[in-house]
Amino acid sequence: MAGTISRRKDQPHIDSGLSARLAIRAGAHRGPTAGLAPGNVQGNLAILPQALAADFLRFCQLNPKPCPLIGTSAPGDPRVPELGEDLDIRTDLPRYRVWKNGELVAEPEDVREFWRDDLVSFVIGCSFSFEEALAIEGIELRHITHGCNVPMYRTSIATQQAGPFRGPMVVSMRPMTPRDAIRAVQITTRFPSVHGAPVHIGKPELIGIADVNKPDYGDAVPVRDDELPVFWACGVTPQSVIATVKPEFCITHYPGSMLVTDRKNTEFAIL
Amino acid sequence: MAGTISRRKDQPHIDSGLSARLAIRAGAHRGPTAGLAPGNVQGNLAILPQALAADFLRFCQLNPKPCPLIGTSAPGDPRVPELGEDLDIRTDLPRYRVWKNGELVAEPEDVREFWRDDLVSFVIGCSFSFEEALAIEGIELRHITHGCNVPMYRTSIATQQAGPFRGPMVVSMRPMTPRDAIRAVQITTRFPSVHGAPVHIGKPELIGIADVNKPDYGDAVPVRDDELPVFWACGVTPQSVIATVKPEFCITHYPGSMLVTDRKNTEFAIL
Hints:
2 copies of one chain form a homodimer. In chain A, 46% of the residues are buried.
């Protein structure tokens, strides 16, 4: 009943991945996917022509912390069976971004008209999964407290190159007391396939971040004197890298409009 | 053969806990136990009159991070069967300290002449166990590099009181790069019964340490600009607490002269 009480009256009851995707496909849900199908994994999306797919796949395998691949499609196939029943990658996200030669050309609500037989879909895990586990343990997530996006930064940490795909790792930052930072290392270590343990703690200048108050993406959040900034590899990394490559054609999710899967966050915990 | 080559020529071959204890008992090994029976757990020793034993046992149970109890004896019994075959707690450490009403009265090589029928032995895990695991992973232990004792500090973190036993937690400090600090949290989390994960990272002033270069016990080690000080609960805590209580009678190990057990460090890893 708790779920029923906390649900907004104008919101349909969407408690499974499939019901979320069907509502989105039918136009009954628009806008951000945050809060849909609580406990289910949501994924970042990148769709690339087959000519680039092998290199991008290898890029993800070489850089599993920023690019934790949780699902891929066969060329031209809009399904990703390992992530959900009756899943159509062309219609099941609320909004997309379509890119040609690195230029944003459209932000449609479905991409059927852009579909090609050579397109390969890549679904990459996102920090929502481990944030759920942190919140359950009572660890404050400052950006959620402030109702804003997590701050993200380009770093001096290089990714491993694969074909044309190369560039700096992007990280997200969550300020925590040292005690919570230690607990957060333990908790996120349990989720190696959705970014895993932090990549850095405490000294942003060592990873090329001049000012934590000036993120490159997302919003700044306050870091108190009794806190350390804790940095995780971020799923914005592959998007940033793809933007650099300027592929002739590419589709990504619109920020905040993720793929809601049938997989549970807890399935991704190794312990 | 590596073990044979690295062994000093004048040192007997001591590769098991039992052979270490028998050599010590026979007077064939004197001085620090570091390096004896590599891979075996070494323990801190506290021997108290039965009148204090229940409170001290509860103190250890309330404060498992600084006081990880790995073995106890029956009153008056010099054996601790769970820690070793043919183990005599009165003769099997190279040197002891005997205390009366908080005063150090003797530093003998065995304590048979001091033995009483009401004495209870407590063996407490030590950081040697997790340091072995850190070293295997290639993490530098600065105090070992410098050939000195680990720096230790009294903190503002209070232990949980049990009877007369109360006082500040003592911590040890190892400087590490942020990357190694994260890895060290993961590794030491695997050893909850020998101090476990760090209790603090990065901001010594928050736990009452005014100057990391001025430890209360052990030796100062340099902390580089690209490093964080990482703090673990330390087995000196129970000794410090016992010293405050000034029991009418008490025996502890002489610093560096530990109990070499038959248990393997790896047995204490939970994963």
